[in-house]
Amino acid sequence: MPAIKTNWSRLIRFVAAETAQIHIGEPIDPELDVGLAFHKEQAIKAYEIFGSALDPAAQVTKNVLTVKQLLPPLSREQIGVVRCLGLNYADHAAEANMAKPQFPILFYKPPTALIGPEAPITIPRVTQPASKHLPDYEVELTIVIGKAAKDVSEADALNYVLAYTGANDIFSVRQTIAFLSQGTTLLPGSVIMTGTPKGVGFVKKPPLYLKNGDDVTVWVDGGIGTLVNPVVEEGASAAVKAKL
């Protein structure tokens, strides 16, 4: 099975200032950390891409658009299923004083749980006060599947990857895809969150938990860049509006 080849190296989804419509595109500056630039309200220009983010044949054009609002790279309708791994980094397992799992620990999230860059992470009233319920943070490398994958071998696993992104390893990406595709099909647009490395709040001394007014900043190397989300306790600020 050949690897997926796209006509773009980095893809963003955004509302364009010129059209007030949603587009996908490739940042003109290949070195630009788009998420950080958006957080700092710096200008972001992108070449428009014609086609679907899930279609490797989508074409990069010379039409230049200005990013007004940065969105998640895929819409909720494109995603379908979000698979998440727990305790997937040896150093995280060690800091939590937990044994490394023999097999990947899998759980699911609905696509409605996903938010975009700069959208608030809401701490619901039912989990307040934060000092009692102790909301923690994580940073995760996230895999986006680009073609249907079932009973995939570790050797072929990376051939099914469309792209990587960041989200607010004991098992490698190859092992993860091979394991999760056994007996079931990972459809294009499937999202796999690979778990957090060490550094979570509950192991710090003193412990560090999320609270109203915090910013959570996730950074992933390899050209993926930065994701920033503010933390808001439900009911604490009516002025904050979700950016989906």
From TrEMBL:
Domain Fumarylacetoacetase-like C-terminal, residue spans: 82-170
Pfam entry (one): FAA_hydrolase
Recorded GO MF terms: catalytic activity; metal ion binding
InterPro entries: Fumarylacetoacetase-like_C, Fumarylacetoacetase_C_sf
Keywords tagged on the record: Metal-binding
Domain of life where this protein originates: Eukaryota
PANTHER family: ACYLPYRUVASE (PTHR11820)
Record family assignment: Belongs to the FAH family.
UniProt protein name: Fumarylacetoacetase-like C-terminal domain-containing protein
Organism: Hermanssonia centrifuga
